[in-house]
Structure formats: structure tokens, C-alpha cells
Amino acid sequence: MPETDPIPFSEALSALPPITLAEMDAITLMNRIDSKYVTDEATLVDILRDAAAAGYRVLVTEGSPVSPYDSIYYDTAGLKMFSDHHNRRLRRQKVRTRSYVNSGATFLEIKRKDNKGRTSKKRTSIPLAELPDFRGDADACRYLAKYSDFEAGDLAPVLETRFLRITLVNAALTERLTIDTQLCFKNLRTGLEASLRNAVIIELKQDGRAASQMKGILLDHRVKPVRVSKYCIAVTLTDPSAKSNRFKVKVRTIEKIINHKITAA
Questions:
Q1: Which pTM was predicted?
Q2: How many other CB atoms sit within 10 Å of the CB of residue 203?
């Protein structure tokens, strides 16, 4: 995959006071309502400045407010999880392994969405060596069978995603904001790769009971909610055989926001 470039918003990040992982224990939000937004890096600079003025704090791990992530998504031979999302099935799942690169922590993660739009996530620690394929780990396979609708034999690695993540927390510790930049994808079946260039995917995570100041900040910068899945966008870009007409519209929306054409190679 292409190497990431130096981030253009370091100065804006430096104005945000830090928060540690230990302090964030009160806002895990493993059962939550998610709202996603797409913007570009230039607009992100202004959003970060407004967030600092509003009292938001930035997660710092291993001495850095920017954390690289490496994930492998799994699916069936027929891409059932991708298809369920494409076909607007309300109850759906995603299965991935994810490495938090700075710390080396690696997990098997199972995300479920219910018919009320709430997302829950279960995860179990695995060795870093199992990031590319956890299926040889008996304990991980049992965990998958317990918390998902799939057995390990149903699934295979489909897609690798890499990106840089910034995590903000409001002063009241009632919401968490993840900001993903420099997103790169590699399809492990087709070999095709793609990048979202200067696109930024923002995810606001809250339990739905507290008002969100960040929603107002995003609206001030004309950043509107967009239903988007990194996995589904990546498959759309890198697997010409996947039925993805609905997601191609999402790709065109992102292209308009960042003013760039997105292609795979």
C-alpha cells in the first residue's frame, strides 16, 4: 500500500489538550449510536480549531495524537457481509482483525448492528502474528462462533485497510469522535489497491442521551452526515465483480467532497 504523507493539521492538533487511555475508560461506548461524516483535510483543520475552543481533548498514545491502524476484514466466499449492507439489511455484522500499531495491541473484533441502528462491538485479544489470519487460533475461533453468526470455516481474509486515526473526547466525557485520514485499501482477492486521497471520515459515537456540541461544529463547516462504510467503499473500489451499484453513488459523493477522482490500481 502507498506510504502515508506528513499530516497537514499538526498545528491545529497541538492546541487540543491531551487525554489518556486510562481517562477514556468512562467513554468506551461499546453499545452506541454512530453518525458518520465525510470532509477533506483542509476543512478538518478548521474543525480541530473549533473543537479546541469548545474544550475537546485529544487521545494521546505512545506520545502521539495520531495513531496508525491496520485492519483485515473477513467475509464469506460470496461476500455475505458486504451484500447484507448493500441490500440494506438492518441486522448485519462485520468481522475483522485490527492492530493498533503504536501499541502493538491486536484484536479479533465483531461488530453487530441491530434494526434500531445501534452498534455493538465485541473483541478479544490475539497475537499480532494472527492479524493476517486468525483462523488457526482455536480460542479466537470459539469466540467468533459465540458472538457472531459465522464459523471460522465460513470466512477468509478479503481486504486490508490502513489509516491514521485521531480520537477526540468532549469535556463532559459523553461522546467520542474518531477522525480517520489517509485511508488506503488493498483487496486480498483481486490484488487491487486504492486510496481515498485527502478524504476524512469522521464518526461521532454517543449513547444518544446527551446533546452533541460537535454536531453543531460540523454543521457550521457544512459537513453533513453521510452513511458510509470503509469496508464497503473499499470493496466497491477494488473488486469489479462485487455487486455495488448503491455504494458507487457513495464513491461519487466522496469524490465531489474532495474534488478528486478515486480509482484503483
A1: 0.90
A2: 19
d(CA 170, CA 168): 7
The C-alpha atoms of residue 180 and residue 48 are separated, in whole angstroms, by 13
**C-alpha closest to that of 214 among 182, 179, 254, 163:** 179
Q: Which of 31, 35, 24, 21 is nearest to 207 (CA)?
A: 31
* Rama region for 58: left / alpha / beta (φ>0; ψ in -120 to 50; rest): beta
Q: Which three cell numbers stand for residue 100?
A: 493498533
Domains of the chain: 28-258 (2.40.320.10)
pLDDT, tens digit, for every residue of 40-67?
999 999 999 999 999 999 999 888 999 9
Q: CA 139, CA 142: separation in Å to the nearest integer?
A: 5
Burial class (CB in 10 A: 0-12, 13-18, 19+), 148: buried
Q: Are 37 and 225 in contact (CB under 8 A)?
A: yes
pLDDT over 70 at 177, yes or no: yes
